[in-house]
Amino acid sequence: MRSTLLRVALALTVAATGLSGGLPTGARAQTRAVPESKAQVQLSFAPIVRQTAPAVVNVYASRSERRQQNAYMDEFFRRFFGEGGQGSPGVPQGRSQSSLGSGVIVDSSGLVVTNNHVIENMTDVKVALADRREFEADIVLRDARTDLAVLKLKDPSNLQILPLGDSEALQVGDLVLAVGNPFGVGQTVTQGIVSALARSQVGVSDYQSFIQTDAAINPGNSGGALIDMNGRLVGINTAIYSRSGGSIGIGFAIPSSMVRAVIDSARGGARSVRRPWLGAQLQAIDGEIATSLGLERPMGVLVSSLYDNGPAAEAGLRRGDVILSVDGQAVDSPDAFGYRFALKGVEGRTNVTVLRGGKQVEVPVKLTSPPETRPREPLRLRTRSPLSGSTIVNMSPAVADELQLEVSEDGVVVADLDENGVAGRVGFQKGDQILAINGQRIRATRDVERLIQRGDAYWEITINRRGRTFTTVLGG
């Protein structure tokens, strides 16, 4: 009985979109109604697939790393592979890495959106269309914070694009299609429903507000399209929850509202996405905190601290305020606030509703990027020390925002780690703030450079890791 009802509900939404007469226009709202005949129950998703699948592409990315020349090995290859040595056909010259994923054509100029993790650390990208044409592509924009990237096809022609839909209009239970290239077998379409909205703690990006779906998403689907019954892109398929590596009906997609913000940055010629900065630390509200604040139930997010010259302080927000909404959109966690705030851009103002002293107050907050209050002065450490293989930079609001750290007036932070570097192997992490080395306070990268050059026999390093301070002693 339940299976029959599910089939009826599925056909119902399809029938309501009027597939027999082609796809509805963008202005036409998606309706929901009960099927009235057996014919409606037997309708197909094929018209939507025909209209949308040509805009979903396969993305092939690779990177070659040349090995250092070795005279002895050159002689070996000459003897066994001919006079050409390592330059001869079939002779390995370096290590190769590759990645396979999906993408979506979103602009007739050849812009393709995919996941950042599909092309991360890659240098050569090719895109294969459903009609078997292939194009080389440039990486226009990478945004690790949303796990999105934008590619630009070289010399494109006759492209089918997939228009962006409104992910804010999605409801739990809506039908969706997932299109991509799972396991590299070729373009595949799966069907399901929206299982949940605004999912957080998925762990693949800084902005946690994912669409959850039971439409089958598998390895290779990353960067593919989540499509609504109006034939519009409502999400970019990004991650799955799985114990086996395959789909178990729990997949996650980045909402089209966030995708739109990244695409708009790429269209404007930006190499990175500019986002607004609040200049405040926010804290989730649990039952205990709600009781202490006199709230009937946990709601909103708590302002726990303010940066003196930040937009929040200038707008009049106070420590202890409870933020309830951003431009009327309710927020119930720091992740939800971060997502809503990030969509506002860096021009004008946005209204933040706060609960203060039992009363709701509207506070207009200026939308501006976090400032570089001092140069980063990046220092890539390669000399013998426990920090070898790390890149450190001077702290500033911009750096703190990128790494999701609390802002400090001075100091340095680990911004990057080599995959096989000493620093990573001994336990340092990206985002670690280095407070002192051998008892000497660290205010800037030049302090680290001076101390590293001394080549001490041991190292006593004090760090702050996400609010926890500790000291470790390591050999030189």
Q: What can you tell me about this protein's structure?
A:
Strands 19, 20, 21, 22, 23, 24 and 25 form a seven-stranded antiparallel beta sheet that branches. The longest helix has 15 residues, at 2-16. The chain has helices spanning 2-16, 38-41, 46-52, 71-81, 116-119, 256-267, 287-292, 311-315, 334-342, 397-403, 422-426, 445-452; strands spanning 56-66, 94-105, 111-115, 124-128, 134-143, 148-153, 175-180, 188-199, 210-213, 225-227, 233-240, 251-255, 280-284, 301-306, 322-326, 329-330, 349-356, 359-366, 379-380, 390-394, 412-417, 433-437, 440-441, 458-465, 468-475. It is built from twelve helices and 25 strands. It folds into four domains: 2-44, no CATH class; 52-273, Thrombin, subunit H (Beta Barrel); 280-366, Pdz3 Domain (Roll), CATH 2.30.42.10; 379-475, Roll (Pdz3 Domain). The protein is α+β, with helices and mostly antiparallel strands and 476 residues long.
